[in-house]
Design a protein that fits this description.
single chain, 119 residues, Aminopeptidase, globular, alpha+beta, three-stranded antiparallel β-sheet
Length: 119
Amino acid sequence: MPGQPTNPRQASPSFWQIQTYVFSSQLDDEIAAVGAIDTSGKIGLNYVAPQARFRGVSKALVHRLEPELLLLGLEEDYLEATETARHFYRSAGWLENGPQATGRTVSGYPMRKLLTKSG
């Protein structure tokens, strides 16, 4: 993160306590998707290989990530969706959570979702 200290002596203890968990899925014996969550409640990655798109892989991956966040004791999840992914996340129960980010190569749309055991 820009502006965050890189020297452990300068950072608050909570900054260094965020952990990231990475998951992958396979189709036809090849990695089809990679997703990542962190202990702050963020889905930081949901990448699907081009040859695996529109085959339910992204949906399955998100359905795998959300229960992991519940196991971590989180009640809400958040992410930044690309313009392309916004419709996908809305159809999965995600809500817009502020204006589009600006000034970056990929300016995402903040989204959030209350987590439930039923998805």
